[in-house]
Every structure is written in structure tokens, then in C-alpha cells.
Amino acid sequence: MSIDNLKDALPAYAKDIKLNLGSLVTTSQLTEQQLWGTLLATAIATKSPKVIAEVSGEAADYLSAEAFTAAKAAASIMAMNNVYYRSTHLIGDEAYTTMPAKLRMTVIGNPGVEKVDFELWCLAVSAINGCGACLESHERVVRQAGLSREQVQETLKIAAVINAVATTLEAEAVPTGV
């Protein structure tokens, strides 16, 4: 199971996605843990069984057990937070944004890995899930922790490419008659 298997599974019309996927792991400015945690968290966020299986299979070679679990936790907690905070933001009534969420999210405070890495994974998942409030919050935290805009941009590119891979492969799995 691997990134190469995903590249091989992409159809010819997705050549750009295939090339982008290949460059993600060969030109990274992120640490190995940041890179593979981002890949794993975003794969989970796509909900694509094939992408999750392929990425998690290879990520296990690069991540400690703690980091592997933390990346999964980032995808899990942001699945909840992105819905809640995106909704309170989109409603447009400031009163909702000042109300306590009263949702448990202790994993954010104690993720089992470096906080900046976990926050980076939360940022990437928030990009896939489309939560502007969470994107702003997590970007601010990772920038204050010393990550560069280029590292944030790379994280967003990983989310974009992994999402495109999942969309393409899921579409290819459905018979279209063409």
C-alpha cells in the first residue's frame, strides 16, 4: 500500500493530479512526521477507503505509533469541529460565536505529539472540510509556533491533492457507461 499505488490507479485525464501527488513526498519542506501526518489526516478526511488504505499503509512506515494515532485523532476531532464552527460562522449571528461549544476536545490540548504538528494536521483537515473559522485559528497557531507561510501553503497543497486523488478515484469506481 502506497502513494505509488494511488498514482498508478489515477486515470490518464488526471495526469496533473498524479504528478502533483508524486511531488508531495519528494519536495517537502515539512518534517517527516509533519508530512506523513498531514497525508494520513487528509486521507481520512476524504472518506475514501482506497485513499485511506494506501496512505495509512505507507504512513505507518514513517510515523511512530503515537503520531499515527494523533493524525487519526486530528481527522476525527476536526470532523466534529469543522461542522460546528463552520455552522456558527455561517449563520452570521455573532451570539453563536460567543457561546461555549460545550464539546469535548481535550485531544487538541494533549495530542500525544508536538502541538505544532497536530495543529498543522487540523489545519489540513479543515481545508478539506471547508471551515474558514478553523483554518484561521489553526493557521494562526502554527505561524505563532514558527512555521513559515511556505510550510502552511505546502500543507494546503497536500490537502488539495489528496482530496483530488480521492474525488478522482471515487468517481472512477462508479460505472458511467462511457
UniProtKB/TrEMBL annotation:
GO terms for biological process: cell redox homeostasis; response to oxidative stress. Homotrimer. Gene3D superfamilies: AhpD-like. This is Alkyl hydroperoxide reductase AhpD. SUPFAM superfamilies: AhpD-like. It catalyses: N(6)-[(R)-dihydrolipoyl]-L-lysyl-[lipoyl-carrier protein] + a hydroperoxide = N(6)-[(R)-lipoyl]-L-lysyl-[lipoyl-carrier protein] + an alcohol + H2O. It comes from the Bacteria. Antioxidant protein with alkyl hydroperoxidase activity. Required for the reduction of the AhpC active site cysteine residues and for the regeneration of the AhpC enzyme activity. The keyword Glycoprotein does not apply. The active site is at C131 (proton donor), C134 (cysteine sulfenic acid (-soh) intermediate). Disulfide bonds join C131-C134. Belongs to the AhpD family. Pfam families: CMD. Residues 98-173 form the Carboxymuconolactone decarboxylase-like domain. Its EC number is 1.11.1.28. InterPro entries: AhpD (IPR004674), AhpD-like (IPR029032), AhpD_core (IPR004675), CMD-like (IPR003779). The keyword Membrane does not apply. Keywords: Antioxidant, Disulfide bond, Oxidoreductase, Peroxidase, Redox-active center. GO terms for molecular function: disulfide oxidoreductase activity; hydroperoxide reductase activity; peroxiredoxin activity.
